[in-house]
Design brief:
Elements lengths: L31 H4 L8 E4 L7 E4 L6 H12 L13 E5 L1 H9 L5 H16 L3 H30 L16 E5 L7 E6 L17 E4 L44 E5 L5 H15 L5 E5 L9 H10 L2 E5 L3
Parallel strand pairs: 3-4, 7-8, 7-9
Antiparallel strand pairs: 1-6, 2-5, 3-5
Helix pairs in contact: 2-3, 2-4
């Protein structure tokens, strides 16, 4: 309002968030644009208006597709608010490592993932149904919502799918799934879009995804912007030649003491324990010192860094999830 941000909380995505699908990494599933009716060889751009996110799904422990779907659905339970139903659209980014877990667990298509995810979201949403009815209809809603909640819980026991007549997300097709991200890491994400409810509700389909075929990228490298060095700004359509970085000379010797620093992320200690075991086996006289950061989200304290510099010839830090 008045030339400033008109929402309570703005977001960088009001400028843009651009995500590419790693089609080659997800060979078992159709690409997103193929699911939207385009040919595999087409260049397609899809625009979605999202209301929040990306919401990270941080996963350290899942080993099966069932566990992973449950974890993602429980994170999605809070989209908008835990008692908001019938969200029309939601962008879902599945990481390559999570994709592998899902495929190994028998999820052979995005359609199957959408169905399973929708059903699990409904199951988790069942306890919130009474709250919705109370807010909508007062004391009458308390009894109606209580009855609906009981039906939803009964369905959970029988079918594991909650109350499909009042789902968290409108339909399984509400999920717009792509595979993207780095090759390692048990992280996925989602972004709920604007709009919830069904017509004629005024809040229904406030935004819908739109996909359009575009021209292929130009073959020739684009000219650099005048006056701006290439190392400060790169045209995303250009090809960039990576510079070779030479490795430092290796002497074949390890000088001690060696510091092993756990940055306090899950799994880091397991890795460092194994490294210490190998070091002591291969270099019996080598001194190994252990350090642990207070938290992975902040730099190591000044006193810890001074201690490492004073006492260690080399340091190995464990970054693990």
């Amino acid at each position: 309002l008045g030339g400033t941000e008109s929402t309570t909380l703005g977001t960088p995505m009001k400028w843009t968030m651009c995500t590419g699908e790693w089609e080659e990494r997800a060979e078992e599933w159709k690409s997103y644009h193929e699911e939207r009716g385009f040919k595999k060889e087409d260049n397609v751009v899809t625009a979605l208006a999202v209301m929040s996110g990306p919401h990270n799904v941080v996963d350290f422990y899942t080993k099966t597709a069932d566990e992973l779907i449950e974890v993602i659905a429980k994170c999605m339970h809070g989209a908008y608010n835990h008692y908001f139903p019938l969200i029309n659209h939601c962008f879902v980014a599945i990481s390559p490592e999570h994709y592998d877990t899902l495929v190994a667990g028998g999820i052979k298509s995005k359609e199957e993932l959408r169905q399973r995810l929708w059903k699990q979201c409904n199951k988790d949403f069942a306890p919130s149904i009474r709250r919705i009815a109370e807010k909508q209809y007062g004391w009458t809603g308390t009894f109606v919502g209580g009855a609906m909640g009981m039906v939803a819980r009964a369905n959970n026991l029988v079918t594991g799918g909650g109350l499909s007549a009042l789902p968290k997300f409108d339909t399984p097709d509400s999920f717009h799934v792509i595979v993207c991200g780095g090759p390692a890491g048990k992280f996925s994400a989602f972004c709920p879009c604007f709009g919830l409810g069904r017509p004629p509700a005024p809040s229904a389909n406030l935004s819908v995804p739109v996909s359009m075929a575009v021209r292929p990228p130009p073959a020739e490298k684009q000219q650099s912007y005048q006056g701006i060095p290439d190392d400060f700004l790169l045209d995303p359509r250009s090809s960039v030649q990576n510079k070779e970085v030479k490795l430092a000379a290796r002497t074949g010797k390890i000088e001690g003491p060696v510091g092993l620093m756990d940055i306090s992320k899950p799994g880091g200690k397991v890795l460092l324990d194994r490294i210490e075991e190998r070091l002591k086996k291969d270099y019996p006289s080598l001194s190994v010192l252990r350090f642990t950061k207070q938290t992975f989200s902040r730099p190591a304290s000044e006193s810890m860094r001074e201690k490492i510099v004073k006492n260690c010839k080399s340091v190995i830090a464990a970054l693990a999830d």
